[in-house]
Amino acid sequence: MRPGGREQLVSGTRPAARRTNIAAAQGVLRSVDAEERIAWVSQALCRTTDPDELFVRGAAQRKAAVICRHCPVMQECGADALDNKVEFGVWGGMTERQRRALLKQHPEVVSWSDFFDKRRNRGVS
């Protein structure tokens, strides 16, 4: 996922192809401690990627998610996007559609980081 892209959403600016609710976008980071976020964002493989490459539409999102495959903070990124219900872009190797499906399938989840940790510890992919 693109840390710079997330900064853009928080500041109220968006990629040209996207129009989002500014109030919702400004609340993207509310549930994540800033220090924790800085720690994982600084390790993201996409930190130097053009954010527009991760804010594409449709099938192009699967191609964009390739950068996430070997990212050391893919889980943290995906959990952050799910916890904050980020609607647009590729985050944690997940497309918009994949994140929506997870949110719909597991409405009871309070912390996606905890959810992913439990699944990993049980050996569930």
Automatic annotation (TrEMBL):
This is Transcriptional regulator WhiB. GO terms for cellular component: cytoplasm. The keyword Glycosyltransferase does not apply. The gene is whiB. The Fe-S cluster can be nitrosylated by nitric oxide (NO). Upon Fe-S cluster removal intramolecular disulfide bonds are formed. It is found in: Cytoplasm. HAMAP family: WhiB. Belongs to the WhiB family.
